[in-house]
Amino acid sequence: MHGPVPAAWLLVALCTATGAYCLLRMRSGVQEQRRAAGGEALMGFGMAAMAVPAAAFTPPGWAWPVYAAVFGAAALRTLWAARGSPHHLHHLVGTAAMIYMSVAMATAPPAAHHAHGGSGAPVTTGAHYAHGGSGVPVVTGVLLLYFTGYVLLSGARLVPARVTVAGTAATGGVVAARWGDRPELARACRLSMGIGMVAMLLSM
To answer: What predicted TM-score, i.e. pTM, was given to this entire model?
Structure first.
């Protein structure tokens, strides 16, 4: 992935904040919520690490196969969970995209990882690789279309609302949902990661 350094750092900040909130969601009392939050936290921090500008840090060559292996294991776990819930299919596509970008970086020539000099010139970040003159690869295009559609659909569905959970307080009132259990924040979290994925795929 290549682009202006400030934009790359904004992407790092967005993905890191999203991953941190997903860690908070892992404290939920709902098992399914905790399981989903764990996978999303891994995705958020993985995207943040991948988006770090190469001018600041260039991962060693062995890091990309490790990335692919970690997200491959996450994909297998998600595939198993997806048997009983179609919701997990989106997480499966996300982990597949991370594997794809990791493999692309692992097989990229060394020249694809260096930063360009000069003010205003594009600076390479961790997820960039060279295409040559062949244009956008089919897999990149398909993933880009999927995540663009996901972002647009999720954004349209993200309607602010006061959310409560079942249960009553000692006074008989409705108990407000905790931060880790609020569904609209979980949807906003996934929307943020979808936006980050679109940005990374556009920059490939």
So the answer is: 0.74
132-149 b/e with 16+ CB inside 10 Å = b?
eeeeeeeebeebbebbbe
Distance in angstroms (rounded) separating the CA atoms of residues 13 and 192: 11
First to last CA, the chain: 5
**Residue 27 to residue 16: CA distance in whole angstroms:** 18
- Report how far residue 100's alpha carbon sits from residue 31's, in angstroms, rounded to the nearest whole number: 29
Least confident window among 42-46, 96-100, 128-132: 128-132
In the chain, where the domains are located: 2-202
Whether 126 and 59 have beta carbons less than 8 Å apart is answered as yes
pLDDT at 31 over 80: no
HSE at residue 36, side-chain half, CA atoms within 13 A, is 22
Rounded-to-integer distance, Cα 38 and Cα 24, Å? 10
Q: Give the pLDDT of residue 65.
A: 92
Q: Which residues contact 144 (CB under 8 A, 6 or more apart)?
A: 136, 198, 201, 202
Q: Is the pLDDT of residue 112 over 60?
A: no
DSSP class of 113: G
